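Suppose you are handed a protein chain with no further information: no name, no annotation, nothing but its sequence. What can you learn? This example shows the usual starting point.
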Amino acid sequence: MYNDPAKPDYAIMAKQTMEGLATHPEDTDYIYAYTASFLQASGQHNENIEHCYKALPIVKIKECREFLQQFIVYSLEAVGRIDEAFEIRKQTLEESECKQFVLDDIAEAYEKINDVDNAIKYYELYVEETKGLCDTYIFTKLANFYETKKDYENSYKYFLKAARQESRESTWLWINTGRALALMGKEEEAMFYFQVALKIDPVNANANYYTGLVYHHKEDMYRALHHYTEALKSNPGFPEVYTNLAAIAYNENGDIQEAIQNIEKALTLNPDKQLIITLYLNLSRLYNKVADYDKHEYYKGKMMEAIGFPVEFIEGDDDEEDNEGGIV
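A reasonable first move is to predict its three-dimensional structure. Written in structure tokens, the prediction is:
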């Protein structure tokens, strides 16, 4: 078997390092630490776990203990012993003089297993430990985590912190600050941040879209249409814009054909699942209004299929809502 001479044989290095205990007992702490690094690097994870658990009660030198804790965590995770890995991390946190790096590591580890609550807890502790003097990505992560929990107040708070701290490429942070406020029902306040984003980047598609959306909700259709049009100039493949243009075409102008065209255009632009359901629902309603019952049934079936129901479940009388009201 060919062995690449440029690639270290970590298994042999681990064995040779441990043999040094007999001749260099004064270096015990370092020998244990380096052995752990070689065992971990060689993929001998179970052997490394056993080695580290034996060494940790013995080793006293701080940097050597941190090495052992670091490498046992890697090996514990490699063999799926996740809970034990977290316990070692928390032990490291108690002993460490520079807690912010350990807090960041723990938070990231919880993030990897999608434990949002604990990720938030340790990122919050990180912010507290650094007295808020941390990188923008920490604030952004917290903002996104809170958004997944529908805690838009905290999401807004951290997007704002990130936006104020980021001197360049901050447009999307200002947009998300406004979006969090809008999700709280504070569209007037949200508009301020969308306008900040537009001042930084006047042609930004998302900034124009959300500005248009606020005007749309205020029933200022002239300004809404202006910003939707600007959004499409920058991003012609923006399905949400076409969806809203369809709503204006039908609800404001009574133009069913234009509404249908906009919705069918949106369907070609890779919308997300929730939007697809809305688009199918609206097409079903609109085709019902123009007495194209084949397409009405077709899109009603597609909507139910997108929701997750077998198509045969939709047979029967049309819902009254198909014949009343506008589109969404």
